[in-house]
UniProtKB/TrEMBL annotation:
It comes from the Bacteria. Keywords: Cytochrome c-type biogenesis, Disulfide bond, Redox-active center, Signal, Signal-anchor, Transmembrane. It is found in: Cell envelope. Residues 50-194 form the Thioredoxin domain. Pfam families: AhpC-TSA (PF00578). This is TlpA family protein disulfide reductase. CDD domains: TlpA_like_family.
Length: 196
C-alpha cells in the first residue's frame, strides 16, 4: 500500500475512532459539567437520591397544538419529560414505547410531557404525533430555549432524544440521554412512582 493510499485510510480510522469514543461517552457527560448529583447506572440511566435532587426549571409555553401548558401544573404527579424531534430516528423508534407506558401509568398518577425541539414547523411535530399515536401534550420549543433553562450538566443539547423523570415535588429524579425501550423506560419510572 502506498503512503498516499494509507493517509485517507488513517484519517478515516481516526475519525471513526473519535466518533465511537464520543458516542460512548455522551451518555455519561452532559452539557459540559455541573454538579447535578446524578449517579450513572449500568443501564445508562442516571439517578439522583431523594433529598439530593435539583428542581426542574420553569417549563411552560405553547404546545404543538397551540395550547398553553405549564409542567408545574402537574405537581403531585410523577412527570416524564421526553425531549424529541420529528426528524430524529431514535425518537421515532421510542415513541410507541412512550405512548404505551403513558397510557398504562396514567391512572397511577404519571403524566408524560414532550418537549419538541428543532422542528421549524409545528405541522411536522403534529404529523409525528399522529403517526405514532402520541396523546400526551408536547411543548413546542423550536429553538431549544426550554432546554437551556436546565441546570448545567442536566441535559445535553446534542442528546436527542433525552428523558427526565420528575418526582412528585417537581425535582429531577432520573435521566437518560439515549432512546429508551419500554423496559428501560419503566425501570426509570417505577422507583420514583414507588416513593411516598
Amino acid at each position: 500500500m502506498s503512503a498516499a493510499s494509507r493517509t485517507p485510510l488513517s484519517a478515516a480510522v481516526a475519525v471513526a475512532t473519535a466518533l465511537l469514543l464520543s458516542a460512548c461517552t455522551s451518555g455519561g457527560v452532559s452539557g459540559g459539567g455541573g454538579d447535578t448529583n446524578f449517579i450513572m447506572g449500568k443501564d445508562g440511566i442516571s439517578t439522583a437520591e431523594k433529598g439530593k435532587r435539583d428542581p426542574a426549571p420553569d417549563l411552560s409555553g405553547k404546545t404543538i397544538d397551540n395550547k398553553q401548558l405549564a409542567v408545574s401544573s402537574f405537581m403531585g404527579k410523577v412527570v416524564v419529560l421526553n425531549v424529541w424531534g420529528s426528524w430524529c430516528a431514535p425518537c421515532r423508534a421510542e415513541a410507541p414505547n412512550f405512548q404505551k407506558v403513558s397510557t398504562d401509568l396514567k391512572a397511577q398518577g404519571v403524566q408524560f410531557v414532550g418537549i419538541n425541539v428543532a422542528d421549524a414547523k409545528e405541522s411536522s411535530a403534529l404529523a409525528f404525533e399522529k403517526t405514532y399515536g402520541v396523546t400526551y401534550p408536547s411543548l413546542y420549543d423550536p429553538s431549544s430555549k426550554l432546554m437551556l433553562r436546565f441546570k448545567k450538566g442536566t441535559l445535553n443539547l446534542q442528546a436527542i432524544p433525552s428523558t427526565l423523570v420528575l418526582d412528585r415535588e417537581g425535582k429531577i429524579a432520573a435521566r437518560s440521554l439515549a432512546a429508551l425501550s419500554e423496559e428501560k423506560l419503566r425501570s426509570m419510572i417505577d422507583p420514583v412512582l414507588a416513593e411516598k
